[in-house]
Each structure stands twice: as C-alpha cells, then as structure tokens.
Structure prediction request, 126 residues.
Amino acid sequence: MIDLSWSHILLVLIVALVVVGPKDLPRLMRIAGQWLAKARSMADQFRKSFDEMARQSELDELRTELEALRHERPLADLDHALNAPVLPPPDPAPASAEPSAEPAVPEAHEDVADAAERVAANGPRQ
Prediction:
C-alpha cells in the first residue's frame, strides 16, 4: 500500500487547489472517487474470480480422488463383513408334541453335579 501520512495528504490537497482551482476541485474529487471505486471493484472481482478458480480446482481434485476410491474399493471386505449376519441361523425346533415333565438342566449344572458325585465318592482334593 501507499504510505501516506496526514501531512502528505494535506500537501496534495493544497497543490490540487492551486493547480485546479477552488471552482473545479469538487468535480475533480468526485471523478477521482469514481476512479477509485472502479479500481476497488475490479480488484474485488479479480480476487473473487481467483478464489472461485482455486475452489473449482480443489473440487476437481476431490472428484478425481473420489472416483479413484470408488474404482479401488479398499473397504470392500469391510462392507461384506458389515452385511454378514451376527448371529448364526436358528436351529429348527424339535417336533415334540408333548412337553417334558422335567425341566432341562443346562450343561454347566451337569458338570457341577458330576463334580459333586466325584467328591462324594472320592473325598475332597488335598
């Protein structure tokens, strides 16, 4: 940027007043303001178009990476594992018409019962 202090601006205004004259000075300032506004809008438009090109370039790169990932499918095994059932299929129920009178004893209780009989027969372990 141009480094202007208040003293420099005052000097420029005095020179403009002497050269242009007090009658045409407001018109000159308005024209200079319009030029400055046009220059700022052009700079802003250039910056926006540059940002848009950069964003479009990044989007194009992301699209190519996404297409490459779609073709490679690095997580295909994971997709298959996620779609696999967690529990095994249920066994078909027995076709028994009559319910049994005694409840079924789980296997863990049978092991405990066998261990109790063995201790009763042989005595406790030492």
